[in-house]
Amino acid sequence: MLTYRPATPAEFPQLAELRWLFRAEHDAAHPKFDASEAARAEFTAACLDFLRESHAEGRWTFWIAVDGDGTIVSNAYVYRVPKVPRPGRLRGQMGYVTNVYTRLERRGQGIGAQLLGCMQAWARENGIERLILWPAEGRQDFYARLGFGPGEALEWENGD
User: Which residues pair with 82 in a beta bridge?
Assistant: First the structure.
């Protein structure tokens, strides 16, 4: 039985572990990816700092799917971005979704879809106008099934 909910600070070490697994899976062939234990320890410390600071700031919500034994099997992060006030919508927000990841051995069971569905329900309840994300290569169909489609955003990337 899985529970879908925001993470607590006590679960941040597991989130850091999942972030490492996510990046290791996607970046292993990249020449700058260092899979050494020293690099992992340095990353974990930096990630834990980020999670703690972000949680304290209050704009980030770290969504998780948790097994009955307390193991986080999937996560997705959302950052609430305040919008400039406009007539009729003085306190608008949108959400930037990132770090959507399910443990390899738990994929194909609908866990990620259920987790994002919970996030979408939360967004509706909290007046978030839209959720935006940049899907990993080959994941566009997954997000399309959940109602994510092409939007209005244009993107600029610093070439450095």
Answer: 93
